[in-house]
Amino acid sequence: MLTVVDVFTKEALAIEVGQRLRGEHVVSALNRIAARRGAPRHIFVDNGSEFSGRLLDMWAYHHKSKIDFSRPGKPTDNCHIETFNGSFRDECLNLHWFETLDEAKATIEAWRGDYNESRPHSALKELAPAEFARQLVCLPGPT
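RESULT FIELD:
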């Protein structure tokens, strides 16, 4: 699984499910996210080959995004995704046995929707991530 989380809103923007996910899967997920919300200014990743290849580097350059790699062996460098991945594992992956990739995708997408819409976060004043994000859109800009 490739998990993409907005560190500000805490929204799970994507969970890509597949076998042998590579750079093109990362770029595909980022393209879908950028089409909905714009490209991120920063992308925090580990040192996996799907992140360290030329394809993601070119995508980031084209979208003016900075890639920030965590130090090898230092998962605390990206504590937001590590915390999310722990919840994802405990609340979804450990509770289901998937017989097909399509079943896994459907179950995981349902969990992601529930996480975004129904899960209050103390860091967001007890709002669910999607509700917090919707409120940001409604705020007036600087005058």
